[in-house]
Specification:
single chain, 315 residues, alpha+beta, 8-stranded antiparallel sheet, 7-stranded antiparallel sheet, 3 helices, 17 strands, signal
């Protein structure tokens, strides 16, 4: 979806009045256990071992943008007996189910996670070990990750090794609306939330030097395991932001082809060698045999000449 798709700053939306079940449904795909409800999309019901996703069909070619997400997480589970959360994506690939909140691992792009279950903390408790106060996180927890396809999301540690930043976000079973906004301007990633019922944005994550290619897809996904929750998306709204750039910024902010973060080393992707075709494999074997026969013939000729010279010496 390029800038030409936007008649104003508002580019597309999913929500009350123009959801998947309306004329805008051509922009969206559901996957897995996701269901269209009257006022929202339910990614997963409050049942074990479910996963669902919602993906926009058209790639986004906007340079500067803001995505506003209206969501609700609720269920019967009591404290720390619910899970697992939902994710918002801006990635190269879409509709790829997997273990990372219902999406593929080693994705290429940006993932923002609303994680409701502390896997690492529970493992520490099971091993009768304690967190030090300096590293303990309070859940639910929002975090972000940029990936070039080389990193795995560490589910057992709640993504800690690869997170760009995060904050606590008490979002379960609230009786008022909860919102998340992802803003990408001049390679500056900002994530804010409105979860207190005050209609005010509160800072969560701010990371400069984030380089995201254009032409990726927006989506959201969720997964449940032994624990569960209802994960509902009420609206997704994308806005194009008009930003002035200096000539120097224009030079520095050229399009990139692989996600990265300044001052953060991501392992480089090594493209796998393409498999050999049947013809190529035949030619390699054929010429190898020809070379082997040629080498044997040359060896026999040289050996016979050496024997003749040896006989002449003795006579």
């Amino acid at each position: 979806m390029g800038p030409e798709c936007c008649s104003s700053s508002f580019c597309w939306g999913l929500g009350r009045g123009h959801g998947v079940g309306t004329s805008t449904s051509s922009l969206w795909n559901l996957m897995g256990n996701a269901m269209v409800m009257t006022q929202y999309i339910r990614l997963t019901p409050d049942m074990q071992s479910k996963q669902g996703a919602l993906w926009n069909r058209v790639p986004c070619f906007l340079r500067d943008w803001e995505l506003q997400v209206h969501f609700k997480i609720h269920g019967q589970g009591k404290k720390n007996l619910h899970g697992d959360g939902l994710a918002i994506w801006y990635t190269k690939d879409r509709m790829q189910p997997g273990p990372v909140f219902g999406n593929m691992d080693k994705f290429v792009g940006l993932g923002v996670f609303v994680d409701t279950y502390p896997n690492e903390e529970k493992q520490q408790e099971a091993q009768k070990r304690r967190y030090s106060p300096g590293v303990q996180r309070v859940f639910p927890y929002i975090s972000a990750m940029v990936n070039n396809g080389s990193l795995s999301y560490d589910h057992e540690r709640d993504g800690r090794p690869t997170e760009l930043g995060g904050c606590t976000a008490i979002v379960r079973n609230l009786h008022y609306d909860t919102f998340l906004v992802i803003r990408y301007v001049k390679r500056h990633l900002t994530i804010m939330m409105d979860i207190d019922g005050k209609h005010e944005w509160r800072d969560c994550i701010e990371v400069p030097g984030v380089r995201l290619p254009r032409g990726y897809y927006f989506g959201t996904s969720s997964i449940t395991g032994d624990l569960s929750d209802n994960h509902d998306v009420i609206s997704l709204k994308l806005f194009e932001l008009t930003v002035e750039r200096t000539p120097e910024e224009e030079r520095l902010h050229r399009d990139v082809f692989l996600p990265s973060v300044d001052n953060m080393k991501l392992p480089e992707m090594t493209a796998p060698l393409p498999p050999l075709s049947g013809l190529a494999l035949f030619l390699i074997v054929f010429f190898s045999l020809v070379f082997s026969v040629f080498a044997i013939v040359i060896g026999i000729i040289l050996y016979n000449k050496w024997q003749e010279q040896s006989r002449k010496r003795f006579y």
